[in-house]
Amino acid sequence: MKRKLFIAICIGIFLFTIISSFNYFNIFQPNGPDAKNGVLDLSNWDFERDGNINLNGEWQFYAGDLITPDNNPHTYDEYTQNLTTINVPGNWNNQYTEQYGTYRLLIKLPNNEKYGFKMDTIRSSSRLFINGVEAGAKGDPSKNMKIHQFSNEKYVAYGTGEGLEIEVVIQVANLNYHVAGIISPIKFGTSKDIEISKTMDVMLETALFAGYFLLFIMYLVTYLQRKRILYELYFSLFCLFQGFYITTLNEQLFFIKMSNLSLLDRSYFQFTFFHLAILFFLLFIYEFFKQYTNKKVVIFLCSLLIVEVFIEGIPNPILLLVTPPIMVEKIVMVFILGLSYGYIVYILLKAALIKKAEGSEYILMIVTSFACYGTLIALNFLFEIKVKYEPVFLFLTMVIGLSSLIGFRHQRAFIEVDRLSKELLRFDEFKDDFLVKSSHELRTPLHGIINLSKSLMEGNKGALKKEQQEVAVLIHTVGKRLAKLVEDLLYAGKIKRGEVNISPTPVNVHIVEEIIAEVFYLIPTSNKLKLVNMFPSNLPLIYVDEYKLKQIFFNLIYNAIKYTKYGEITLSAKVQNGEMFISITDTGIGIEEDHINQIFDSLYQVKGIESEGLGLGLSITKQLVEVSGGRIWVTSEIGKGSCFTFTIPLANESQLKAVEKPAYFPTEKNSMLLAIKDKEASKAFLDVPVKIEGKKGYTILVVDDDHDNLKILVNSIRSLDYTVIAVESGVDALEIMGNESVDLMLLDLMMPNMSGFEVCKIVREEHGLLELPIVILTAAGQLSDLIISLQGGANDFLQKPINLEELKVRIESLLSMKESSREAVKNELDFLSAQITPHFLYNTFNTIIGLSYKDEEKTREALQYLSTYFRAKLDFNGQDCLIPLENEIELVKAYLSIEKMRFGNRLNIEYEIDETIEALIPSMTIQPLVENAVQHGIAKKSNGGTVKVTIEKTTVGVKIVIEDDGVGIPIQKQYELMNERSTRLGFLNPYRKLKLIEKSSFLLESKESEGTKITIIVPGGENDESSINR
């Protein structure tokens, strides 16, 4: 039904155009008499009833004469030879030799009142006389081209009847246009009616322009709001220039304030507006129906239109020198416009009839109106067929259709967006449910992984090798990070569902100083960045959950650090309308405007910017602020930085009174919390350093500048039967480390002079994660987690206030891990030593057997040396995997003495050994390397060689050098030995054992035919086993 209605409208538009083309539009006006032989009888015409009338019919015409009338009745007698009649409206074109003449009409009136004449198009200049008196003119009709001035403006003139008659004389000249004469009807009526008609025409034209201009403003504003839909911009510009073009027609309102402009200059404006209107309409069609258009064709047509604007719409000096015939210009113009019109009509028909595009009914109405409009404009332009407001009506119909089509598309888009929005909301709920369920499902196996890896670290299932334990530690750390991400997902879901409990209390906003001090250590050393706290000292208390406030501060400050490489991060606050406005301002990269409204969405991350995490930080922050009764927003400028501002309500009087009691009460529930909220009310002081012996064989070092916390930690660790040492500074802690054997350290992050972070870095230079576990004490748990993740300095963290049970679990777990690590290294050393023993015995017994056939005395001496080895070996098995260096030297000397008996003069032995050195090394470390030198270096040379053993004290430890001048080792074999790809146990086992020793080194140097040199560095002067753990 709807389609049939639009088809009927299109047929009506088409018929309307046909009637207008044949100039039958006057059937809608009252019928009236026509002039005959220069006389129009209106004596019976009732102007009050019938209104105005067109002065159509046969006028007298004096061709080739410009007659100025006077009161002499015989004025025209001398021009009778040129007298003829001519139809008005009409043109004489080339019917006469001279392109000028005089029109004359005598009108018989019903009465002698004042009448008006509304002059329309006259080509191309005219002067009107009423009863012999000049009443109006446009241009200057003249026989001389130099004097002649052309103008086709419309004007109104008035005159009074005399003797119930009015004589109308019009001089017309056309010296430079292809159409000449009175082209359009002259309207005649009473002065009042003519004035009304003139006013109505002006009002109609003004209304049309206002309508177009309103569409221009409306669609331009719509485009500026979104800046994405180009067809809205092109349609707005099309309406603008079409509106201006309308004002250059008929009443020519555009030129009211430019009355001195010549006709040529006015035509420039008219052509410019018309071509630009078509240009932007073509671009509009291209953008609106882009899938049906050809970009190259559109570019070509746009280029032609722009060239045509340059030629016809702008004064061109070249065209002043070479002026083509007007008809040629018109044909070229119609050709270019015709191509553009034709392509537009083709696209519209293709969209409406072939592709069946949405809103095809509107498209049919548009294409019909547009085609008919173009037809009337072309007929008027080429053949001067009079069309007045018919094209305006058609164009208005087309614009209404276009607006309806755009509105239809917007409506469909709105419906689609509404549908997608509802669908997205439903998917968002599905996403939340999926994340929650997935997080719950992940949490169980993750906790299993964490607990199992913890059990492996602690050695509950048996001691692991060192590499295995390091893998277990890595699995445990990664598992904890994944568990933290899962907890963040669950936490975000709880906040969104309103399931997060908050416990607001009056809080001093200056707690942010703790966060600033700790987060400072997350700033990369390469970043020239300062954290500036601009909080006034006299800020009132705010009513908020303290833990949630710390979380908000941390998230915003850390977010600023991530995206700011240099400059400042400034914190400021002010009180206004019962709220505190807190701002975190940075000088970072800034946020693009398109992302401003999305950065607080869950899981949202700006594309193209590398970022850690899941994109939950700002989302959680926003929700925490909102559940705390505040608001949060951000302002930003690319390249200059961002400012995050949030509000928190102030604590009122009743809330302040409610917390005048102590923050913690001695109840069973909170008796285990190790915190002192009111430091002024309870000042503890310890005479540090202090050491309290415990029954268990582990020593824990506690470092904290706050004596209240220090005393509580000391008492707590003492209650667990561990030996505890307490100091108040990082410097004291490092001094204690040099004098005492420490098994675990509890280290406060924020201390004066030397922070816990700095202490941790120094300790890690000497002791590995497994050798000396470190637990960081911090005010912000999230921050400590990041320190562990990013810096790798601490094994674990505890957030203040500290829970005794949690502290106990952490200590026991880390000490179990340390013990397991020590046991693993010992087991590995035992295994390697056990591997060497049979190999050594096999070679030694072969030597003794060989000697027994030659020399009994030397055989007894060799057996004495062998007994020395057995005694040392038995001592090793009965004690530990590390032995004094002097015992290993005794083994080496015993072995070389046996080999000396075997090789005789072919083996030379040299010793440079500092007998005062005291050090512990793994058993069977030097002897197998010396054996390698003898068996694979010296023995393979026919003339033998020398083995030299050097042991000396250096600044970095004990230096042991085994060198020979044997056959040497090929480069490929050296590579295999150092990368443990060889089966030579005499080399590999010592090499592997030394790798387990902290601060040890192993260097192999060899050249074929020249010999081999092995240099070993081991820690010296230590009589404990601490060096075997890392």
Automatic annotation (TrEMBL):
Gene3D superfamilies: 1.10.287.130, 3.40.50.2300, Galactose-binding domain-like, Histidine kinase-like ATPase, C-terminal domain
Domain Histidine kinase: 437-652
Residues with PTM 4-aspartylphosphate: D748
Membrane topology: Multi-pass membrane protein
Pfam family, any one: His_kinase
Alphabetical keyword list: ATP-binding, Kinase, Membrane, Nucleotide-binding, Phosphoprotein, Transferase, Transmembrane, Transmembrane helix, Two-component regulatory system
Name of this protein: histidine kinase
Species for this entry: Viridibacillus arenosi FSL R5-213
